[in-house]
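Raw record, unedited: Ring-hydroxylating dioxygenase small subunit
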Amino acid sequence: MADQALKMATPETHLAFHYLLAKEARMLDEYCYTEWMELIAPEIHYSIPARRSHHIRDHREKDFRKFDTDHYDDDHESLLLRTMRLANPAGVSSNDPRPREIRVISNIEVFAQERPETYRVNSVIQLVRNRLLDDDSGIAGRREDLWRGSVAAGFLLVRRTVWISQNTILMPNMASIL
């Protein structure tokens, strides 16, 4: 397993991230985008790469985690615009009525990095979304985060890559933050 060389964070730090990720999910579920943006570092890189299926025999020839397109490829400014649009769905018919979303976070792993007060945090997210009477959809993925900060001072999200399980997003409207 590739993570064997990584240094596990202290139990206190791991617990702090467990609570932080649960709080982050609740903020997004409750449309608290201004508060969520306070967790975001100015140099954020937030991406959801497009996935492709490949035959196993082709795997040894290429790095399939490098792609030429992303579903999301956001910096701080584009995330701010995205959250402003989500916070005020009045002009966006696909968000009126506003969808009900629930995010479930699990499989949390926290690793201390060589740079002080920097942590790699892996987790799994499942988003369940309902908008109309029979409009249920969902998406799941593995998140690879880089956070900066401390238990005492708080943490900021520096980088998030979400590897969704689908090749094609099957949601009618993927106007959600993972």
